[in-house]
Every structure is written in structure tokens, then in C-alpha cells.
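Review form for a predicted model. The reviewer records the input and the model, then writes brief findings.
Reviewer: anonymous (R2)
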Amino acid sequence: MKSMIVIPHCQSEHHVSGMAGGWTDWPLTELGRKQAEQVGHVLSDYPNIKEYSVYTSDLLRSLETAAISGGIAGFVPERVADFREIDIGQGTGQSVEWLNRNTIPLTGSRLTYRSLPGAESRLDVMARIYAKLDKLQSEGVENMLIFTHGFAATMFIAWWLKLPSEALEHAHFQTPSGSITELSVHDTGLRLLKKLGDTKHLQFTG
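Model under review:
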């Protein structure tokens, strides 16, 4: 594989309503839709954007980000359920305030920790994302553009950098909503994190 671009969805209604994300179908806000347009304009300036295979989480906020951006940059994304955000189990559909009151305290390994009954762990999210990426790579996909979520984005970056699962016991990559992360392979074979969570293109949408 030659390169990967990772974009967490733009501002969603749950970001401003005090509700939890997880496996919910919150739409983008008006600002989020403007941010997605800005993302599309940036991507349309990539000289080789037509060479990218484009994928998106099948949750609404990611689908909308990908559709708006794709309408400008000229691509149609493929839906991939494995690229969803972390499942928060019993917290699905609840408020952030409810989560704060009911989240199970962390004990032991952060990798296997589940914040609520029915929730995924970091290892669970890593396993499903890694497995799908491995499959796409085995099928010969060379350049990937992925629309996903803030928590999940770390797993794509870690896969690209070939980090062992133990590295995510304490590590997390900060990727704000609508940001762009670029990864590539250097001529020497080193796997590069060229750009992390860049938001310069969003400066006019506040």
C-alpha cells in the first residue's frame, strides 16, 4: 500500500446537544456540512485523488461527511461497517451526563477495558479495523481515503505505522472533527505519518 488519508466526520448534532456518539445516527450540523464542503475542496486539489479507493463508516455522520466531500471532489465512497466508531453498549442513545454518572471506572488494562456493559474495548475496535484493512491490502488496494470517527481514527494510524497492540495501552492520536491525517511510504520503506489531524482548511467555517 502506498498511502492513506484518514478523516474523522465533521461536526455532528451530538457534539452540540450533549448526547453520546457511539453507534448512533446523528446527522451533521449546519457547521458540519460547511466543514465537509471545505474537506471536499481540499481533497479535490490532490492531483491523484482519483487513484484513491474511498471508504466510509456506515454511521450517518460519517456518511454525510463523505457524501458532501465526494460531491465536490468527485468520488463515491463505499460503506464499511467495520470502520464505525467504538460501540459504547448501554450508553448508546444516552446523554454525556448519563455516561459520566454510569461509566465503569477503569481498572487493569486500558486495552481490554469496557466502559459500560455491552461496550467494545480498544482491542475490539482495533481487531475489526485491522482485519478489514488487512483484507483490503491483500486485495491490492494501494491508496485509501477513509471517513471515520475520532476514536477509531487512532486504529487506522496505528495499523499504518505497524504499531503493536501494546502501544495503544497509553497512546492515542488526536484527530479533531473534519481534520485530515496523511500517511505514506517513504522511498526507504519507512511508513510515514506526514500530517496528523490538520484543521487549517476549517479556519473559515467557525
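Findings: The longest strand covers residues 191-198.
Further findings: The domain at 3-202 is CATH 3.40.50.1240 (Rossmann fold).
Recommendation: see findings above.
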